Amino acid sequence: MDSRLTNFIWHIDGSYVPQIQARLKDKSLAPFQAKLPAAYEAKIQANGVAKSWNMWLTDRFSTDRSVLVLPLSGEMSRYSWDNFGNDFYIRALKSAASDADFKGAVLQMNTPGGTADSTPAFAQAVADFRKSKPIIVQTAYCASAGIYVASQANEIHIENQAASSVGSIGTLLIRENYAEYLKMAGIEIEIMRATKSKDKALVNWIEPTPEEALALLQTMLDECQREFEGAVKRGRAGKITSEEVFTGKMYGADLAIKLGLADRKGDLPQAVKRVLELAA
Asked: Rounded to an integer, what distance in angstroms lies between the CA atom of residue 149 and that of residue 153?
């Protein structure tokens, strides 16, 4: 498997994993490269990069120019493979928090989740923004790392349709071992380590994983899960009605609202309107 997948713990909806594996194995798929239209590129010197991007995104997606709309679609990671990337959203929120032109923000999410790396920082950026201005998450599908981030917003609005779902509050790591496949193909690979490097890359796709390495991985997964649950409980304080939501399940709109993973049903224009109400 591609090292970008095996080297990370993923906060991601498990049902989406095969699609992500296929995408990452496709070497012809180039990283997402975002570029502002020329009219907005020209404004960078006066407004700065983050401000210029926020202006363009708001002009394109928002029904009110005083409410920033940040669209997030696809897998989440620090720099991402097919969307802006967590670092981009963090910079955008920090810029808008101190920008008098914006009364608040809507984070429009459609994501299966993503890597544990940078997810806490993204969630913290949403929580920090919330301290000064209202921020609403509007979503039709928000899983795992997505709900980690979304939970820090003032409210989560879920689209009123049967296909909508949120949840998958869980942490997983995917391991693959190709030893038998290589044996069948007549390929023998030997890993040699320096004398003092006995613990180097004990988890790999050729050798059996030692019990002590498996125990360390389990400890790390459990620590990430505790961090995940803690963040959701803090962000949704007083709203979560059952520990059931922390087992990794996904929930439709009605049950998500009942269990405290969402606040109401609504589309993007309604979310923008709600931001203005909270900002008044």
From this structure: 8
